[in-house]
Amino acid sequence: MTGFAQVKGHVNGRLSFTLSIKSVNHRFLDIHFRMPSDSDELEMKLRRRLKEGLARGHVEMTLNLERGANDNFSFNREIVGGYVLAFRAAAAEFGLAAEPDLNTILRMPGALESATLPVDSGLEAAVLSQMEEVLERLNRMREEEGTSTAQELRQRMAHVQRATQEMETHRHAVLQTYVERLKVRMQELIASQIEPERLLQEAALLVDRSDIQEELVRLGQHVKHFLSQLDQGGEVGKKLDFLLQEMNREANTLLSKTSGLAGEALNITELGLSIKSDIEKAREQVQNLE
Predict the structure, then answer these.
(1) What are 142-198's pLDDT values in tens digits?
(2) What is the Cα–Cα distance from 138 to 135, expressed in whole angstroms?
(3) Would the N or C end of the chain have less CB density within 10 A of its end CB?
């Protein structure tokens, strides 16, 4: 699920920070950081907490430092000089008349260094103290989206239920069509003096293909299971996706049984296509749920 949250904090009179986190849909938990240099230990602790608080999503956490106006800065000659040399070498190789942009260079990580920022600034403790707040805000937004998604999924399942119930009203007419087909086929086989065993096999095959009740029953069971999983809450995204795959399989079987039939069977075909449409739209939404 998507979400965004941001908090601000202070380390001391000269240093403050902004901690922001955003997430977008993803099948697994994929965490990325944009952190100041030399903050590997803090990043590991933040990563551990994110894994505890989130189950799925492409998550990006950003930590921006804001230093006081009285801080003195110096530039890193190695980084800045290396960039300038590389820029001019590329310009010379391709025959371009251009000069490097100093504003761009100084925004590079590590290009500027604060001369007065103490090593033990308490930054880690201050950031970790705000971690719970930013994570709570993110999850609150994700929960709001999840509630909206769950409501849409319930509407999709209601459509599927109504379609299966309407199919049941057409089922007997379709069976009658198969009975007529069976009579014609049996007459053909009897006229050709086919063996009794083959005759029984043909009859059994046509009977097996004739009824869609089994598919309708399984569709109804899958819908009930789907709704019960939504009611339970928690990390249900993968379970719901599996159930939707099973529903799609039943819908395909159902359509294959009524393929080529006219009359009321066409109504079943239309309803089956409608069910498949709702299933596909539900699968798109399920990818957003944990």
Answers:
(1) 888 888 888 999 999 999 999 998 888 777 766 666 666 666 666 666 666 666 666
(2) 5
(3) C
> E strands within the chain?
3-12, 15-24, 29-34, 57-67, 73-75, 112-114
Is residue 223 within 8 A of residue 247, CB to CB? The reply is yes
* pLDDT tens per residue across span 191-218: 666 666 665 566 556 655 656 788 889 9
- Cα separation of 105 and 87, whole Å? 10
Question: In angstroms, rounded to a whole number, what is the distance separating the alpha carbons of residues 268 and 259?
Answer: 10
Beta strands in 90-166 (DSSP E): 112-114
136 domain-assigned? no
State if pTM tops 0.85: no
- Mean of the pLDDT values across residues 270-285? 91
Q: Please check whether residues 192 and 269 belong to one and the same domain.
A: yes
Tokens, residue 13: 């009179």
Structural domain of 275: 144-286
Q: Are residues 77 and 186 in the same domain?
A: no
| Residues 187, 236 within the same domain | yes
Nearest to 264 by CA among 176, 185, 181: 176
